Amino acid sequence: MTEVTLDRIMSAAPFAGLTKPASAALKEQIGLGLSAPGRAISNRRARVIWAGQRMWLVAADVALDGLAAVTDQSDAWAILRIEGPGVVDVLARLVPIDLRADHFKGGHTARTMLGHMSVGITRVGAQAFEVMAMRSMAATLVHELQSAAENVAAR
Amino acid sequence: MRITCPHCGERDRREFYYQGDAVALARPAPDAGAQAWDDYLHNRDNPAGDTQDLWFHEAGCGAWIVVTRNTVTHAVADTKLAAMVKR
C-alpha cells in the first residue's frame, strides 16, 4: 500500500450541452479528452478520471473558461495505491462492486463505497488499484484497508 | 436489492438515497392554482402496481434516477436518468 501524490487535481464539470467542446479543448491542452463514464485515461502528461455524472478529475493544469466549471481540488484527495496477489479479495471485503479482472478491467474506474466511505476506485494494473477518498478520511481509508488485508492474510 | 444506474450499472441499494414519488418531475406552473399545488405538495397515489420513485446515486455518480417498480411484485422494470426524463 503506497500513497499516490498528484501535483494537480482539477475537477471539470462541463456546462449544459458543452461536454463535447470542453472535451475537444481539453484534448488540445493535454492530449486527452473527457473519458467515457466509468473510464480513466492517461498519457505521459496527464490523467483524466471520470468522477460522476458530468464530472471529471483532471490531473494537470487546465483552463476551460466558458466551457466547464473547473475547480482546483489538488489538496482535497488522498490517494492510495494497493497492490498484490490478494488485492481483489481485500477490496471485496469493503467494496460492494465486483472488482475481479473479468469484470473490472484496466482503465475502469468507479465511484462507490469502501466501508461507509464514498470513494473512487481505478484499476491501474493486473493486481493494482488506486483508491481516492476525501483527504479528511485518509486515516480511515488506511485503517480499513489494513484490517481487511490482515484478515485476508490470516485465513 | 439492486438498482441499475444508467451510468454505473447494477449497484447495491446502500449506494442510493430514496427520495420518494417522482412527482418532482411534474411540478405545476406557478399560476396553476391552489388545488394543483395542494396535490403536488401533499397528495400521493398509493397504487397496487407500477409506480415511479426518485433515487439518488449518492455514493456513486451523483445522478438522480427515476426507478419504475411494481409495488405488488417488487420488480424493478426500468431506470432512467431524471435529467433525461425531464427534457
Structure explained in plain terms:
- The complex is a heterodimer of chains A (155) and B (87).
- Chain A has three helices and ten strands.
- By secondary structure, chain A is α+β, with helices and mostly antiparallel strands.
- Chain A has two domains: 2-72, Alpha-Beta Plaits, CATH 3.30.70; 77-154, Gyrase A, domain 2 (2-Layer Sandwich), CATH 3.30.1360.120.
- A five-stranded antiparallel β-sheet of chain A has the order 1-7-10-9-8, with helices on one face. In chain A, strands 3-4-5-2-6 form a five-stranded antiparallel β-sheet, with no helix packed on it.
- In chain A, a hairpin with a 2-residue loop joins strand 4 and strand 5 (55-58).
- Chain A is elongated, with a radius of gyration of 16 Å.
- The two termini of chain A are 20 Å apart.
- Chain B is an alpha+beta fold and 87 residues long.
- Chain B has one domain (2-26, 48-86): Folate-binding superfamily (Folate-binding fold).
- Helix content of chain B is 16%, strand content 38%.
- At the A-B interface, strand 8 of A face strand 2 of B.
* CATH class (first level) name of the largest domain in chain A: Alpha Beta
Ends of chain A: how far apart?
A: 20 Å
Tally of strands of chain A:
10
Q: Can you say what the CATH homologous superfamily of the largest domain in chain A is?
A: Probable tRNA modification gtpase trme, domain 1
Mean pLDDT of chain A: 96
